[in-house]
Amino acid sequence: MNLRSRFVLIFIAAIVVSSPLVAQAPQPGAPPAAAAPAQQGGTPADRAAAAAAAMKAPFVPFHIIGNIYYVGSTGIACYVITTPAGDVLLDTGYADMAPQIEQNIKTLGFKLSDIKILINSHAHTDHGGGLAELKSATGAQLIAMAQDVPYLESGGHNDVLFHDQNLFPPVKVDRVIHDGDTVTLGGVTLKAYLTAGHTPGTTTWTTTTEEKGKSYNVVFLGSVVAVPTNKLFDKPDSPATYPGIKSDFDHAFAVVKALPCDVFLASNGAFFDMQKKHDALINGADPNPFIDPAGYQAYVARSEANYQKIVQSQQGTDAPTSHTP
Questions:
Q1: CA 104, CA 61: separation in Å to the nearest integer?
Q2: Is 150 among the domain residues?
């Protein structure tokens, strides 16, 4: 099994472990291809391809809450955040998903030219692969966390985990940001938190939104998924995936556990049970099912428990901890 196929299967398994529903029937917004990719037969490469296809499967775009809209696929979450001065697009999915994301934006009644700013959760092909196309189509400014800029601008070259296995069209970053920086457009402010580990620049974004006269804290969780192929400890015969990765993951969990969260959103739909909440929302659920502070804390707890299992499996009794960058 090549590195790419192995990682796809491991990552899908990690999503299942940390997600609210371990198994889930196809939902009304999603096509049958989205159901249970792990049950597909064939070679590991075939299963990896099927899993990726299920993640890319189209999903009907919809209004989530306040000024936030879902324009992603069945598995890959992408968002439009509207403002009086234009809109922000968070994540774009794979490169070949770009036409799908563009059509989703139009289906909701927005123009591509309405998108003024592009932001990203992390520099992997499944979340930033379409940035180059969307930047060209919209003319928007791309803003990204400093530690992920080299990977966005090289199209994933020398990725700390994938190496050159998952390349995507490179894209120029217009504004480089750092932990705690903000992005403001039309009176709407998003704050960027460096929650590294999954990538060196993984970013969790927060904002506030209003609905029915109430204000809500929104968290767009970047990704705090650790996988067994992450090497967390720097050992002579097996160096860490990148220097400081364990310290980064530890910091990321400390940050996300402390964030005030009313509306739980994330970089993958399965992380926040998107399909189930979508179905409840369109069936008139009140209050809005995406208002889910308990679900946020539960997801973070599951993810941290999974991470700690990987730590315990790798550290041994005398293993040194990875050094900070």
A1: 6
A2: yes
Structure tokens at 55: 């993640």
Q: How far apart are CA 125 and CA 94, in angstroms?
A: 6
Residue given tokens 């775009």 in the structure block: 61
Distance CA 289, CA 277 (A): 6
In angstroms, the CA 48 to CA 54 distance is 10
pLDDT in tens, the chain (325 residues): 555 555 555 555 555 555 664 333 333 343 333 334 444 568 878 888 898 899 999 999 999 999 999 999 999 999 999 999 999 999 999 999 999 999 999 999 999 999 999 999 999 999 999 999 999 999 999 999 999 999 999 999 999 988 998 999 999 999 999 999 999 999 999 999 999 999 999 999 999 999 999 999 999 999 999 999 999 999 988 899 999 999 999 999 999 999 999 999 999 999 999 999 999 999 999 999 999 999 999 999 999 999 999 999 998 744 444 333 2
Q: Computed over its alpha carbons, how large is the radius of gyration of the chain?
A: 19
Q: Is residue 325 part of a domain?
A: no
**Domain ranges, residue 40:** 3-315
Q: What is the pTM of this model?
A: 0.88
Which burial class, exposed, middle or buried, applies to 180 when counting CB atoms under 10 A from its CB (0-12, 13-18, 19+)? exposed
